[in-house]
Amino acid sequence: MLSVAVSLDGYIDDTIPERLYLSNESDFDGVDQLRAESDAILIGAETVRRDDPRLWLRSQERRDARVAAGKPANLLKVTVTRTGNLSPDARMFHHHVEAGRPIVYTTVDGAESIGDTLDSVADVVAIADLDFWGTLLEDLGRRGIEQLIVEGGTHIHTAFLEAGLADELRYAIAPLLIGQIDAPRFVNPGAFPGGSRRRLELVDCTPLDDVVVLRYRPKRTSTTPSGQ
Ligand SMILES: NC(=O)c1ccc[n+]([C@@H]2O[C@H](COP(=O)([O-])OP(=O)(O)OC[C@H]3O[C@@H](n4cnc5c(N)ncnc54)[C@H](OP(=O)(O)O)[C@@H]3O)[C@@H](O)[C@H]2O)c1
Asked: Tens of pLDDT along 67-113?
């Protein structure tokens, strides 16, 4: 499940160093519910470095419900890096790690750069570059992860959509116009399955105050209108 909040002009952040929150409270709550239904959460290393999120379940009620169902209160946290440039002080390694040590997937070279710097906070797993994402998902599957929520940023969403690995896309449109050419967009240009003419299947459209949440199934195709 990919989840993203996007401005009206297609950006997912601005260029100001302070973190930008595109969502509103109702949308954060919707994402919290999705997280509660998932087993693990993945973000890219650049989002870790820029936003330093905790990746936790904000609702005590949802954490309690998970525990009552025999699950850890919070999700397993996962990130990916090629360079290995991750601080052991990142908040995702320390806050709400009830599901076990966070996992850092990296390349063989990345694992070499990381060395033992993350030993006290995370499990580092090296993957050969070939079919990086498929191997990552298989490894998570072996660890009992059935539902993974992927929360960006640009490179990560692009990679999952290019590889055709997303079952669902939750796309929250926020009422902002960023207007900065260097700000990150939802995805980079990429070779998406089916190319530029393929339509995704819309499965839901819900207004949440001033945000609209669209849910698409990227793996299914809708009929292309024949036009004039
Ligand atoms: N609005 C939203 O919903 C939302 C959500 C999340 C993030 N964001 C924003 O997105 C921006 C960051 O996006 P981004 O595209 O710059 O970064 P990103 O997608 O968060 O992370 C990209 C990083 O992931 C690692 N990576 C990518 N492909 C890899 C591969 N095949 N193997 C191993 N590692 C790989 C690399 O890390 P290394 O550089 O360490 O090698 C790469 O630099 C931030 O501004 C953040 O605020 C917005």
From this structure: 999 999 999 999 999 999 999 999 999 999 999 999 999 999 999 99
Ligand 1 centroid–CA 177 distance in Å is 22
| pTM more than 0.90 | yes
The amino acid at 34: L
Torsion over CA: 163, 33, 73, 55 (sign): positive
Site residues for ligand 1, CB cut-off 6 Å? 4-5, 12-13, 22, 43-47, 50-51, 80-83, 85, 106-107, 132, 151-156, 159, 184
Both tokens assigned to 24: 């509103």
Residue 139 Cα distances to 67, 115, 126, 127, angstroms = 24, 21, 11, 10
